[in-house]
Amino acid sequence: MKLVLDTNVVLELLYWRDPRSEPLGRALAAGRARCFTDAACLGELERVLGYPQFALDAAAQQALHAAYRALATGVDTLLPDAALAALPRCRDTDDQKFMELALRCGADLLVTRDKELLRLARSRRRPAPFAILVPERAIALLDTPPTTAPEQAR
């Protein structure tokens, strides 16, 4: 299963080591799921890791950034503007990059805790071509037999 993780979920996995997300990390490590990233999402992670509240020195920031780069597959494919225009628009323009990445890599799931992105999961007017879920729902999908489609979990 192909996943896009927003920055908060990456932090849950690698910085906070949140027990709620540990099964997601195990699924990625075991190859039951693959996550994808791109330069824009990596840039946001780099910027966030530098926030004072994380109290990370440069070496620790680089180590976390490298750990995510090792976990994720890079995507540099571009799509025509018309394809990107078909996506629902997130109110927070900083979050739109995760929607676009999910479309570009053919993701099954966009895994997030962001309220604005999760609101888009309920859009009937312009539904996303992938499920947008919190980590716990994504984990439940990863633990179910392959006959369950991601769209059923929205």
Your description of this structure?
The structure is a single chain. This protein is an alpha/beta fold and 154 residues long. It has one domain (2-149): 5'-nuclease (Rossmann fold). Helix content is 47%, strand content 11%. It is built from 8 helices and 5 strands; from the N terminus they run E-H-H-E-H-H-E-H-H-E-H-E-H. Strands 3-2-1-4-5 form a 5-stranded parallel β-sheet. Strand 4, helix 7 and strand 5 form a beta-alpha-beta unit.
The CATH topology is what?
Rossmann fold
Helix and strand pattern: EHHEHHEHHEHEH
| CATH homologous superfamily identity | 5'-nuclease
Mean pLDDT: 92
Shape call: globular
Whole-number tally of structural domains: 1
Secondary-structure-derived class: alpha/beta
Question: How many alpha or pi helices?
Answer: 8
Radius of gyration: 15 Å
Task: Chart the SSEs and their pairings.
Blueprint: E1 2-5, H1 7-16, H2 22-30, E2 34-37, H3 39-49, H4 58-71, E3 72-74, H5 81-85, H6 96-105, E4 109-111, H7 115-120, E5 131-133, H8 135-142
Parallel strand pairs: 1-2, 1-4, 2-3, 4-5
Helix pairs in contact: 3-4
List the defining traits of the structure above.
single chain; 154 residues; Rossmann fold; five-stranded parallel β-sheet; 8 helices
Short description:
With 154 residues, the protein is of the alpha/beta class. It has helices at 7-16, 22-30, 39-49, 58-71, 81-85, 96-105, 115-120, 135-142; strands at 2-5, 34-37, 72-74, 109-111, 131-133.
